[in-house]
Amino acid sequence: MKKYYKPLLTFALLLCVIGAASFFFWKQGTPYQQPYWSPNGQYYVQKYSNVMLSRFASTMPGQGSDAIDGYIRLYDKNGKLIHERFEAFIRDVKPTWAGSKVYLMGVKEMDDDPWILPNTSEEEVR
User: Fold this and answer.
1) What are the sequence ranges of the domains in the chain?
2) C-alpha to C-alpha distances, 62 to 56, 59, 67, nearest whole angstrom
3) 84, 104 Cβ separation under 8 angstroms
4) What b/e string do you get for 56-66 counting C-beta neighbours within 10 Å, with b at 16 or more?
5) Residue 47's closest CA among 86, 105, 82?
6) What is the pTM of this model?
7) Rounded to whole angstroms, how far apart are CA atoms 124 and 126?
8) Could you give the percent of the chain with pLDDT greater than 70?
9) Which is nearest to 69 in space by CA: 85, 45, 58?
10) Is 102 within 8 Å of 115 (Cβ atoms)?
11) In the predicted structure, residue 70 carries a pLDDT above the cut 90
12) Is the separation of the CB atoms in 59 and 67 below 8 Å?
């Protein structure tokens, strides 16, 4: 058993490194649809499609595009991440800008728990 200890430990460590790298590559996702900009152009919401096992499940004809799961991320205009959340079925999710809050229509949990912005998203009145 002692002669297998070092190769097994090396193999386990290699699996951990590959698993962590794969997770961060997967979490990055692929941009899905166009970004949704706030009225004042200071913030935007971008949806990202992530590959899930459910994407490979058989579906009824016409339902293949329904299975889009992924991250929804809120950024400032400089690309700094402010908030993110993972959701199943992100195809029809749209942000609603309300002053210093962002509601994601289509995400039930966001009805009472919106994302809070550092500043207002409304246009300045001059």
Assistant:
1) 30-116
2) 15, 8, 11
3) no
4) eeeeeeeeeee
5) 86
6) 0.72
7) 6
8) 79
9) 85
10) yes
11) no
12) yes
